[in-house]
Amino acid sequence: MHSQVTDLIETLIHDEHSPESINKAISELTPDDVALALESIPLAQRKQAWANIKQANRLDILVEMRGESRQLLLKGLDDTEIETLFTDVDAEDLLEITDSLPDRLVDIALKQMDNKQREYYQQGIVYDDDVVGRWIDHELLIASQSIRVSEALRLLKKNTPAYTDMVYLVNRTGRWVGCVKFDQLFKAQGHEPISGLIDEECSFIHADTELTKAAEQLERSSLSALPVVDDNHILLGRFHAGLAMETWRLENEAQQMSTAGLNEESDLFAPVKRSAATRGIWLGINLLTAFLASAFIGLFEATLQQVVALAVLMPVVASMGGIAGSQTLTLIVRGLALGQITRSNLKSLLSKELKVGGLNGILWAIVIGVVTLWWFESPMLGAVIGLAIIVNILMAALSGVLIPVLLDKLRIDPALSGSVILTTVTDIAGFVAFLGLGTLLLL
Predict the structure, then answer these.
(1) What is the superkingdom listed in this entry's lineage (predicted)?
(2) What backbone torsions phi and psi does residue 120 show, to the nearest 5 degrees?
């Protein structure tokens, strides 16, 4: 598939005036692959390519694009083009892109919808974008709990949406009462009431459940979809395996981008000023932390002037602490994401990480101390850097556990901010330990 996307990128760049070749290439790919290809070319060529794409394909492609890419593309369209674009928009698609649309465009899209789709949209927009209620699928098999098996089987013949392996039963008020798996239906007699086949183990997802937790619940259920209900137990829709896979994909992408201080909605060819401003904020934060570390080094200026070897060896101390801390930080961030870390096990986890840090600290302190002794022919300098390594790796282990936990308590993404804070802490701890011991033992 990657080669097909690459081929489409080449087509979009070199054949921008050939609608036939562009649409032929698009017809062989999914909308998300086409969106990826469009996001991979400069803005001017992207707009030319968009103008050559068939109207029937545009909305599906637009929905799959990143938020910033979508905004940049819509910015060049007038109201008539936007009305045409949103002619067949449904509630799920509009909910997907509404955060990247100004209110004026949302109103235009809503006017194109029928009453049922507008109702679905109003139902979903009240939920935050990280909970199931916002993203439920409305294509599901629903039946009254009072029908017979023969009627349910006729329902199956009419339409069976993807990720469907059961019928959801509701009462006269629309409240969910249970589900019946297909295999039970096929085994039953046509005259039997369907209510007698309800699967007692079939669970449901509350609309306020976080997406990642809903994906975990679906995975544990061994089903392809689960019903979603509101506070009154009214059946709103379902959460299926396709939505769960997309949840995990977006979660992983968000974590990868956040480690560099970037947003997963960022466009590859966003305007230079916008990209520079976004990245500049994190460069500024990093600069402040670097100056902070430098300020601590400045406290030992006299020591550095007398023992030049300390300046040569300082990067070794900082590097060892940084690597050790990032290992612990990564482990803790993953544990927080999976809900593995609680107040009850935090003390045991901290103790374990300190023991790991102490063992590694002693091992590598001996190695680095021996190398320093051989290099500078100074036993005391070897002892100084060895002790500093132990102190810094222990501090890295402590910080690697406590920093992400504290950030999580403050509702700050530890994957985004944890590494910056950790690097600052380990740098300062390493420099103070190394230069402080050097001042005491070498002068």
Answers:
(1) Bacteria
(2) -60, -40
Going by C-alpha positions, the residue among 15, 1, 5, 72 that lies closest to residue 36 is 5
The tokens for 192 are: 């039997």
Evaluate if pTM is beyond 0.85. no
393-416: average pLDDT: 86
**272 pLDDT tier (thresholds 50, 70, 90):** low
- Look at residue 359 in the predicted model and tell me its pLDDT: 92
CB neighbours of residue 151 within 10 Å: 13
- Return left, alpha or beta for 222; rule: phi > 0 is left, psi -120 to 50 is alpha, else beta: left
